[in-house]
Every structure is written in structure tokens, then in C-alpha cells.
Amino acid sequence: MDAKKKVLEVMKKEAAPMNAGQITEKSGLDRKEVDKAMKALKDEGLIVSPKRCFWEPAA
């Protein structure tokens, strides 16, 4: 499973806005991989930020 799918899966499972540190803990991925995946997901419109530094899947 690639990093983007893993990050999105963790976010959907948690069902609450998360920051990169929390996603890193839950996914077991390296922080750099998580940051890169989150940037790609943001650019694709798959995640949104309800408040500063926290992210959740787009509706």
C-alpha cells in the first residue's frame, strides 16, 4: 500500500481531524513520507483543513 492510501485510511478510521504527528504514530510511516503524502492529498483535494495544522478527509 502506498503512503497516500495509508494516510487517507488512517484519517478515515480516526474520524477526527489529525495533525501529521498523530498520523505518523498511527500509520507507522516515516514523518517525511507522511508530509509528502499529505501534500499530494491536499493538492488532489482529498483532504481539507478544518483548523490550522489539522487535516481530515474531504467530504
Low-confidence stretches: none
CA-based shape: globular
Radius of gyration: 10 Å
- The overall pLDDT, averaged over residues, is 95
The amount of beta strand, in percent, is: 15-25%
What is the end-to-end distance? 23 Å
Total strands? 2
Summarize the helix and strand pattern as letters.
Answer: HHHEE
Helix content: 55-70%
Number of helices: 3
Strand order of the largest sheet: 1-2
The biggest sheet amounts to: 2 strands, antiparallel
Structural class: alpha+beta
Short description:
With 59 residues, this protein is of the alpha+beta class. The protein has helices at residues 3-14, 20-27, 31-43; strands at residues 47-51, 54-57.
Describe this structure in words.
A hairpin with a 2-residue loop joins strand 1 and strand 2 (54-57). The protein has helices at residues 3-14, 20-27, 31-43; strands at 47-51, 54-57. It is α+β, with helices and mostly antiparallel strands and 59 residues long. The protein has a two-stranded antiparallel ribbon with strand order 1-2. It is globular. The longest helix has 13 residues, at 31-43.
Keywords summarizing the entry:
globular; alpha+beta; 2 strands; 59 residues; two-stranded antiparallel sheet
Q: How is the secondary structure organized here?
A:
Blueprint: H1 3-14, H2 20-27, H3 31-43, E1 47-51, E2 54-57
Antiparallel strand pairs: 1-2
Helix pairs in contact: 1-2, 1-3, 2-3
